[in-house]
């Protein structure tokens, strides 16, 4: 009897090819090829203004783009944002505050409310609401089933952030794109949050994570892509990325700076401010020069 080697099949949930976004003269994303597999956490990092949020906007249908976006092998780049959501991809927003007057469960229900006049009229007449099961399922995925009837103000900040994630997960989401979901958390809360992300990924959900908290990103991500000026300048494991001179230079402006400084999120912020000041002075032309100072 021959030995059978079992190879676990991986499902590529998200794949982009040549994804580009232009805002006037600014190339916010340039030819981005990126994949996220089921059960994988992939980090997207880069200095301020590198194009991370634009990438999420383009993938989820909130920014006009060229190139391919596939969800589970199917092209979705020409369908509207709400149809991409129904197809199984969802995102969070940087300013993703919860509704303070609604309960946690109601906050999730709002996220899957149908849109459009026809839906509104039919909902008014039928009193249609999302089935409770899908709300509970999303809350259970982030370990918050017990707080469904509480209001956000009664939760810790870490729990509120997880409600934000649950809001994106509700309705059978297979791929979730998280834009700075841990902003404002302290080190301990951020670690707990990261552990919860790993549990979510273990259910088979693919996660694209943008965050400036380098310890979180380096800790929880299986792979990372680094953007600078809208382009991918490096991709690989957290260890490979930390040792990549191009990444260190992009973040810190100098390849001589120690790579372990990447652990310090404030270095990235500081560097970005310095970079944009340098870029501004380098591109400051006459007042009527178009695009002067823009990235
Ligand atoms: N709606 C828009 N109109 C014009 N330019 C835009 C728009 N959105 C983003 N940009 C520009 O595109 C570039 C990329 O911005 P983006 O917000 O994607 O970067 P980011 O990496 O997410 O930055 P941050 O880390 O600060 O959130 C920047 O030069 C930004 O000014």
UniProtKB/TrEMBL annotation:
Q: Which SMART domains match?
A: AAA (SM00382)
Q: Which UniProt keywords apply?
A: ATP-binding, Nucleotide-binding, Transport
Which molecular function GO terms apply here? ATP binding
Compositional bias segments (type: Basic and acidic residues): 271-282
Name all ABC transporter domain ranges. Answer: 14-254
Is ATP-binding set as a keyword in this record? yes
Stored InterPro entries: AAA+_ATPase, ABC_AA/LPS_Transport, ABC_transporter-like_ATP-bd, BCA_ABC_TP_C, P-loop_NTPase
In this chain, the stretch annotated as Disordered covers: 258-295
Q: Which Pfam families match?
A: ABC_tran (PF00005), BCA_ABC_TP_C (PF12399)
Report the protein name in the record.
ABC transporter ATP-binding protein
């Amino acid at each position: 009897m021959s030995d059978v080697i079992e190879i676990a099949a991986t499902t590529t949930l998200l794949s982009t090819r040549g994804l580009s976004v232009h805002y006037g003269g600014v190339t916010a994303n340039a030819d981005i090829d990126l994949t996220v597999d089921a059960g994988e956490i992939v980090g997207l990092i880069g200095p301020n203004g590198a194009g991370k949020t634009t990438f999420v906007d383009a993938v989820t249908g909130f920014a006009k783009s060229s190139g391919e976006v596939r969800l589970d092998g199917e092209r979705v780049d020409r369908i509207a944002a709400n149809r991409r959501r129904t197809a199984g991809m969802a995102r969070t927003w940087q300013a993703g505050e919860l509704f303070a007057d609604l309960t946690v469960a109601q906050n999730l229900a709002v996220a899957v409310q149908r849109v459009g006049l026809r839906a509104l009229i039919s909902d008014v007449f039928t009193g249609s609401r999302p089935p409770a099961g899908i709300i509970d399922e999303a809350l259970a995925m982030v370990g918050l089933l017990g707080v469904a009837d509480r209001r956000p103000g009664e939760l810790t900040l870490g729990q509120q952030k997880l409600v934000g994630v649950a809001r994106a997960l509700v309705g059978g989401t297979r791929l979730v794109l998280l834009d700075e979901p841990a902003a404002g958390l302290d080190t301990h809360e951020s670690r707990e949050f990261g552990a919860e992300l790993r549990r979510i990924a273990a259910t088979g959900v693919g996660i694209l994570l943008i965050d400036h908290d380098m310890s979180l990103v380096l800790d929880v991500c299986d792979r990372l892509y680094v953007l600078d000026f809208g382009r991918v300048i490096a991709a690989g494991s957290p260890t490979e990325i930390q040792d990549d001179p191009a990444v260190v230079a992009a973040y810190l402006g100098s390849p001589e700076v120690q790579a372990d400084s990447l652990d310090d999120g404030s270095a990235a912020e500081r560097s970005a401010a310095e970079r944009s000041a340098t870029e501004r002075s380098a591109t400051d032309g006459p007042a009527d020069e178009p695009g002067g100072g823009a990235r």
